[in-house]
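Example with several molecule types.
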Amino acid sequence: MLDRLMLVLILSDLAFLGVSRFSAALSLLALQGALLGALALAAHGSASTERMVLLALIGLILRGVLFPWLLRRTARRAEIVEERNPLVGFAPSLLIGLVLLGIAMTLGARLPLRTSPMLGLVVPASLFTVFTGVFLVVARRKALSQCLGYLVLDNGIYGFGVATVGNIPALVELGTLLDALVAVLVMAIAMYRLREEFDHMNTDQLDTLRG
Amino acid sequence: MNPMATAWLEIGLALLLAPLLNSVISRVKAVFAGRQGPPLLQPYFDLAKLLRKGAVYSPTTTWIFRAGPILGLATTAAALLLVPAGRISAPVAFPADFILLAYLLALGRFFTISAALDTGSSFEGMGASREAHFAALAEPTLFLGLAALARKTGALSLSQILPAASPLAPEVALVAGALAVVLLCENSRIPFDDPNTHLELTMVHEVMVLDHSGPDLAFIQYAAALKLWLWSSLLAGLLVPPVAAAWPASLTTTLGVFALAGCIGVVESTMARVRLLRVPHLLAAALALSAVATILVVR
Amino acid sequence: MSAEHLLWLTVLGPAVFALAATLVRSTRASLAIVAAGSLVSSALNALIAILVLARGPLLAGAGWFRVDALSACHLALLALVGASSGLYAVIYLAEELRQGSLTARQARHFAGLWCGTLAALAFLLVSNNLGLMWVGLETTTLLTAFLIALHVSRESLEAMWKYLLICSVAIAFAFMGTLLAAAAATTTHSGAPPALFWTDLIAVAPRLDPALMRAAFLFLIVGYGTKAGLAPMHNWLPDAHSQAPAPVSALFSCFMLNAALYCTLRFIPVMEGVPGCAGWAQGLLLGFGLISVVVGAGFMLFQHDAKRLFAYCSVEHVGLIGLGLGLGGLGTVAALLHSVNHSLAKALAFFAAGRLGQAHGTHEIAHMSGALRTSRAWGVALLASCLALVGAAPFATFLSELLLLKALFDHGRTALLVVVLAALGLAFVGLMRHAIRLAWARGEEPPRRITVGIADVALVSLVLAALIALGVVIPTPLRQAVQAAAAIVNAPSAANLVAGVRP
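Resulting structure tokens for the full complex:
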């Protein structure tokens, strides 16, 4: 069953590379949050403690509900609808994504991690999510896309942590969730200020500081 | 009834009933639009009418223009011989026959494009370039999807691959999705091409055959119907659970084909045609689905 | 009060001040909070550092807190930098208040974010848990982002966004590295709690899988190295430093880069313990350090903005520190010593650039000249810091750079030595080219007179005195402290890990 979830995660990453409208992208982000919450709950099966379930639920609410909502509000206030012409076009992005998927699969097989057998596809899927996040940050113009890329990267790392480390201390997990929340808030405010000052959110036009 | 006879029965059904697919699609669209729709046998009346007429050939055209429709029909009919029905093997089946299938279709497309370019008209040329562009993206999808299925089922012949592939496996589901998109593209359906448009600048396939008339046009229309049947039976072979017995296999495949035609009708009624610039994105998405299936199978 | 209470205080103290900053209304109160918060935090940090250096490693909070010689050295540095930058921030912002370019809201934000950053920096230094160390560094990224764009303008927003994105992605990579290391540790013994404690990781180092740890360290050095300003990941540094207010630039260059290097340093002894990886991690650090030295020195040649010039100088010096750390042995001692000396010199440089910028209204070097005429104290500070940054005697940086070059020679890396000397020469040209003009040239009269009070003079004198004193002789406590810290990085023995003083 976990394999099916991870397949949907991989498809959602590919979808991220192909969509241009932000409403679709933010729905995909919510879907990823839900998938990762399900992964966290299912990864330990019967060995989960109450604390782990609670942490998984908090993570689910933050990643699946709160972050997309915050960014939707930001997009609405900044009045941006879609990424019109990214640095790397949508069709080439999809093809590059496929190459990244291949790399993630090979790496996932090569790394000598001891994960339980039922978590077969989780490590490659998480690695692919990480790669997708980095690609989105690098290959898109709008600040909101870059913020989305950062969150996708964060999702991938979270999935990787769930698969490989098992139970991270609750304090560390709460700390990382809090950091993610503050990061989203900070980025949202920054984007809003960018939009106010520049009248656009194209980060490739932020080039006055050079040399 | 022995398997060989069933296989030829299926071919006969295809040759006979293919034009009905178009009428099924038209009827579904009419129901959605609250209309009556044309009679179910209308495509046959159209074909008969066209066969009775004389053809007009422009002085700028050469033998390619006359050969295009005939070769298109020949290649499509030949390709039809390779598709199985349920567990009944196709009349022609050998290892890696799906490559022959893809290339037969490509051959037909080549001659259609050549005939279009032969007219020297800019409309046809525009349609030819669009068709070639989309085909360049659709063919790898078909190949990758079939290769993934071949690897998964361990067989190399279409007659063995299709019955063995169960849509419950995620890889097969992905390939089925990719093939569904390619079906719509290859058969010039919405969201790739509107078959009912009368504006040449928005056409892809219709505009390539703008100058054909009489029996040539009849061959082209019939070949298009056969192509739709072929693709639908490929997809139905994937989706419908295979039946081993002789004539029920033929029956289930035929029913599957008509069900798919109905689905195409629904898709045409609910979606609009996509901007021409976005068509490569859709095809790239289908390619991505195929590629993911391949990667999953190969790991 | 026990040592454990002290540790809690050192983290929570500045945090309380940060919270208090959100409640006050007037600018004066905000500035008072900045001063008080910095001084209190510095006092506490210094106290802990002295305690640990005298008595040995401190373990508290059921193993979650741990301060050893390495952390103590950095805590002492934080105390120094925090106190001086905090005082400078008050002077700087008071001048802005007088010039009318600071609103109460901005002052409030500054106070809250400044104290919060100090708290986060202290937090990352005292934690034994590598995950919480990461949380601390990430928090500093997020808090300082708004400090950069305190005065909203196109350039500052651009710098802030670049900084935010590059450093957040980099820190996420560093977390990936931390997870990989933890995964390597969990594969050694199943059923035991995950080893995100540094002490646990060191203990199981010989049993860790080399391939995994190599992958982990790669992520870590790229991630933390970006935050430390190592080239080629340094792109955010010049922009952030040039656009941020001078106190913030000083805090960046003088401590935050060192904090990021500290996080990398924590993993080096682990990597040394992994079988088959000896010297690999240090080789990476050496490579990045060398590239940073060359890139920093090279880019310094064609800068026309004073703070940007000093920013590239930071890249160069962080490269030198990385180089020393990558050498090991004497190099580590030299590098740790250099981090202290560089922080002192760079602080002075940014302080002077900031104040003179306030006088001239711009940081363009072409428009800032005749510093000695504008303000005797800050002109001297600027000139002295430029000399110190190129490593001139009798400043402290001369000693540490000499030590570093000696380490290079001792290890037989003559090729590297030649490259480093060439780069230092480039840096000399790049910096001194402007220093003389900045100090003496007859330029236009400064449009605004700045009030240079006793606080300015005191600050300059103290830092200058420290620079010269350390350049003449390295006091024994400092030498012992640095050697103890270097010992932890180079080859931690079991004795180092014995939980020293109970709380």
